[in-house]
Write a structure and sequence with these properties.
NAD(P)-binding oxidoreductase, 4 helices, alpha/beta, two-stranded parallel sheet, single chain, 29% helix, NAD(P)-bd_dom_sf, 10 strands, Rossmann fold, NAD(P)-bd_dom
Length: 210
């Protein structure tokens, strides 16, 4: 049986992805710090597991063969939480995946993680954390999909994508709902090989991106 663990399932993208998967009758384990944040979701396909990403969360991996790491420390936290969640927890998530023979690991990274030094001073700790977490996954031996979304918006989903960076910075955006749709596609369509994909709203179907 295919079961996907969503790490960070109570976040904006994580919760939307959880909902989409349940609508498709897919088996989901949702790892959250507080179960009450998913109290509005009710499905026999859903298992909610509590865990603290700054501590041991390996128990959430039981019976899961796909992993989505969509957790983040959030913009209101400092560099200490960025290191603990966006870097250290992401690295441990990959290490646990190796131990549990996970078949596919999907990491939600960030645009700019390839060159964190060119980011703004305020963004550099976050981008460095994402960069190092990505490198750890790349070197893990796991089959991976690293998704690097551009600036996130709360607009309605467009179902239109591109993996080419727009020339204009203001066009380098993507809705959170579209990111969730892209993640659902990655889960449902196993990759032929590991890949890193930058993601923006554009004019292509998701099937043309992955």
């Amino acid at each position: 049986m295919q079961r996907t663990l969503i790490i960070g399932a109570s976040g904006q993208i994580g919760k939307k992805l959880t909902q989409l998967m349940l609508e498709k009758n897919q088996q989901v384990t949702a790892l959250v710090r507080d179960k009450s944040k998913l109290s509005d979701l009710d499905s026999d396909k859903l298992s909610i597991v509590e865990g603290d990403l700054s501590k041991d969360f390996e128990h959430a991996y039981k019976n899961c063969n796909k992993i989505v790491f969509v957790a983040g420390s959030g913009g209101h936290t400092g560099a200490d939480q960025t290191i603990l969640i966006d870097l250290w927890a992401a690295c441990r998530a990959a290490d646990y995946a190796i131990k549990h023979d996970v078949k596919h690991f999907i990491m939600v990274s960030s645009i700019g993680a390839d060159q964190p030094s060119i980011g703004s001073n305020s963004m550099q700790p976050y981008l460095v954390a994402k960069h190092m977490a990505d490198e750890h996954l790349i070197n893990s031996g796991l089959c991976y999909s690293i998704i690097r979304p551009s600036t996130l918006t709360n607009e309605a989903a467009t179902a239109k994508f591109t993996s080419q960076r727009p020339e204009q910075k203001e066009q380098a955006i993507i809705t959170r709902d579209d990111v969730a749709e892209a993640l659902l596609f990655c889960i449902s369509t196993p990759p032929k090989k590991s890949a890193i994909t930058e993601l923006f709203n554009g004019n292509k179907k998701i099937t043309e991106i992955f």
